[in-house]
Amino acid sequence: MAGVPRLQELTLYNPERTITVKGCPESCCRAEQEIMKKVREAYENDVAAMS
Least buried of 12, 25, 27, 29, by fewest C-beta within 10 Å? Predict the structure, then answer.
């Protein structure tokens, strides 16, 4: 049966996509914003390349 893989399966088979952020909550929040900005840019570049 096909479906969305569990998080454990994703991290098990794609360790290069695992990001760990350590620090105070404010620093982690800023890090998350920066990481998501880069992920969004990479996704948009991939979509544009496929068009």
Answer: 25
